[in-house]
Amino acid sequence: MRKNVAILVFDDVEVLDFAGPFEVFAVADELRDHLVFNVMTVAPMPGTVRARNGLKVVPDYALEACPQPHVLVVPGGFGARALLRNPVILEWIQTRARKAELTMSVCTGALVLAKIGMLDGLRVTTHHLAVDELRSLAPSAVIDPGARFHDNGAVLTAAGISAGIDCSLHVVGRLLGDDASSATAEYMEYERRH
Which CATH number fits domain 3-188: 3.40.50.2300, 3.40.50.300, 3.40.50.880, 2.60.120.560? Predict the structure, then answer.
């Protein structure tokens, strides 16, 4: 059965925060004859999302129409701060994450997971310029900004922007094995960092 990978997109989302994981999971699926991942984007509302620096994205689903994800990816960017004040999105993430196998943040997406208490007591990371914000939202978390990503089992956090690619490759390795992860990185001509 294909696993649903839902990647949240929203106004002012950082482009590589969502596009990097999208590429990793989509390529891994392509290399496995489209049998392993159903990669989709989901937004707070139907219609076009304007990502950071003006890129327009048409998401596959609005929140309530999105199938339950096995893997939920919460990217960051300047727009992530607005999510912190949006109870509908916070509740949706919390509800969907509870039933997902894995929830992964990229960059300041960690702030969103912190806001709903998902990072309490975990070793986590975020963009190096957002460490203090993360510390204030998750005072019981162990914040390690020196790592590309942290895997806490059901919850993973990636550092800034391009680190989401490394974390996604790690997730592919967890779910499909190291060979699948290596083949995906090779196809993407991406030199992995751990």
Answer: 3.40.50.880
